[in-house]
């Protein structure tokens, strides 16, 4: 059983528990459901954008606790001040130490920047939930979704006015998963099946295989300005980074220092 299999097995139980507590119909009456969304695509296409998608991440299966001393509002507000193009907030509880509350606190502190609800989406219910939390972008991970499910979840995401980020790790996942409901393609440099990689080779290898009309971003294992420059030179517009910032005492300062070197 891979780590991803374990995460998905637990996610199925979690979604069933959540559905029993509050119905999808009730979610539609709640929170930010009626809020208009902020576009990630528009943000990344802006020539003056840093392209950096800054993540609030407390822990991970591979690293354990990354930072236990910061609040989502301070970190995400600081990220935006420092020049983040977009925010990503983990809501997975069991493996990443996140929560819906983290997302809501970040949303409240930053009403008008695009925000990704970072979780393992397997069910329509979670998309409706994301909308009620005020999410702008939904992550769909090809490694754990069939092409049919990507279409179904992608269509609901679009119907609710949000954007989709399709996460792939190799060419096979790309070819089977790309469909009309995808807004941005993200290459995850880290293999979610074993959390092994520590470099951006996956992004470099896939750059020319992703259709030129797709907006592409590179995810995970990025720490240096030089790497971002290299990824830009092969066509990436976005850079999803968590640990590099979160492992420091002052994540927004780490982002500001990086942007100064770009
Ligand atoms: O902390 P890093 O190596 O900078 O990675 C951030 C982000 O890419 C990573 O958290 C991530 C990418 N895809 C995911 C899917 C689920 C959970 C987490 C992730």
Automatic annotation (TrEMBL):
Pfam families: IGPS. The keyword Amino-acid biosynthesis applies. Pathway: Amino-acid biosynthesis; L-tryptophan biosynthesis; L-tryptophan from chorismate: step 4/5. The keyword Mitochondrion does not apply. PROSITE patterns: IGPS (PS00614). InterPro entries: Aldolase_TIM (IPR013785), Indole-3-glycerol_P_synth (IPR045186), Indole-3-glycerol_P_synth_dom (IPR013798), Indole-3-GlycerolPSynthase_CS (IPR001468), RibuloseP-bd_barrel (IPR011060). GO terms for molecular function: indole-3-glycerol-phosphate synthase activity; phosphoribosylanthranilate isomerase activity. CDD domains: IGPS. Residues 4-257 form the Indole-3-glycerol phosphate synthase domain. GO terms for biological process: L-tryptophan biosynthetic process. Its EC number is 4.1.1.48. Keywords: Amino-acid biosynthesis, Aromatic amino acid biosynthesis, Decarboxylase, Lyase, Tryptophan biosynthesis. It catalyses: 1-(2-carboxyphenylamino)-1-deoxy-D-ribulose 5-phosphate + H(+) = (1S,2R)-1-C-(indol-3-yl)glycerol 3-phosphate + CO2 + H2O. This is indole-3-glycerol-phosphate synthase. The lineage of its organism: Bacteria, Pseudomonadati, Bacteroidota, Cytophagia, Cytophagales.
